[in-house]
Amino acid sequence: MARSMGAVRLKKTNPITLALGAALCIFILYFLIGSSGSGFSAARQAAAASHPLSPPTSPFRKSTGKAKYKAPPVAHYNLNNVTITSNPLEARENILLLTPMARFYQGYWDNLLKLSYPHELITLGFILPKTKEGNMATTELQRQIAKTQKSGPEKDRFKSIIILRQDFEPPIQSQDEAERHKMQNQKKRRAAMAKARNSLLFTTLGPATSWVLWLDADVIETPPTLIQDLASHDKPVIAPNCFQRFYNEEKKAMDERPYDFNNWQDSEAAQDLAKKMGPDDILLEGYRELPTYRALMAYMHKPDGLRAETVPLDGVGGAALLVKADVHRDGAMFPPFSFYHLIETEGFAKMAKRLGWQPFGLPNYKVYHYNE
């Protein structure tokens, strides 16, 4: 026996509800479509890499679909076409800005955004340790990157950004300044720093890179024209003078003092000390136990000196350091071992010199380190 179905009556929908539903659908569609893009102009999107295995310094936009990628195309690069000039802005040369980071400093990131060199020509590379502080720094770094790259003005957005995590344990857990600079911690600490720098460099150096700017995560103030200023000297390796602002209790006013003592000219005393050392011993700067009597660029600064004055160096620090990419391509790296009794950035300077690349410094051109 068939059962009869009664008529179904539909309740009339409120027009306001329909309007809100339509608006929500539009918003969802806009979010899904808009978030998949970079938000860049058509010109910058056209320069994006089409495959994830493209050179690491090329910008890459993830696909929104589920389709599998085809095999990466075979690409040919003629490095003879990569220019490295004293006017990188005019030549539109690509800059690789590399930072080993254990702590995140907001002043560092704010200073990056103030750099006047076109951000579309700057690739950022970071390496962070897998420690509690390193995890916190990574979280904050990613937050700032998302804020800048997704919602910030296009002029602030960088060409591409790479974040690496160290695959080795840090030699010391604390990043406090006093602990970092203890003499007994230096060899293992500097060796670990060298490994981190090398990992970062060899992972990110691309075929289109002209200059590599090393900038420490605790350098929070530089001239906006830092890249153009350093490159204008056309030196293979060049370092500004790193100072630190502090409150002078005697003067009852803000003052500044030298900070980085790894930019130096060698001395006979230091060479004599090295001759008495074992093959694995390293010569450190700034410790009473090792009086080197080197000429430190930190003390060459003259208040009325020319900012463009250059001096040849035998050792360099890594607070801020501009390097022609060809120097690194030629094999100059950061030795994590005793290299002529030098290690890390000072060992890099020695290696660069032995390859024919003379480092220079700018005693009257200052950048500023965070004051803990």
From TrEMBL:
Q: Does the keyword Membrane apply?
A: yes
Q: Which GO terms describe its cellular component?
A: mannan polymerase complex
**Gene3D superfamilies with a match to the protein in the record:** Spore Coat Polysaccharide Biosynthesis Protein SpsA, Chain A
Bilayer disposition of the protein: Single-pass type II membrane protein
Compartments, record wording:
Golgi apparatus membrane
Q: Which top-level group of life is the source organism from?
A: Eukaryota
Write down what this protein is called. Family 62 putative glycosyltransferase
Q: What are its GO biological-process terms?
A: cell wall mannoprotein biosynthetic process; protein N-linked glycosylation
Record keywords: Golgi apparatus, Membrane, Signal-anchor, Transmembrane, Transmembrane helix
Higher taxonomy: Eukaryota, Fungi, Dikarya, Ascomycota, Pezizomycotina
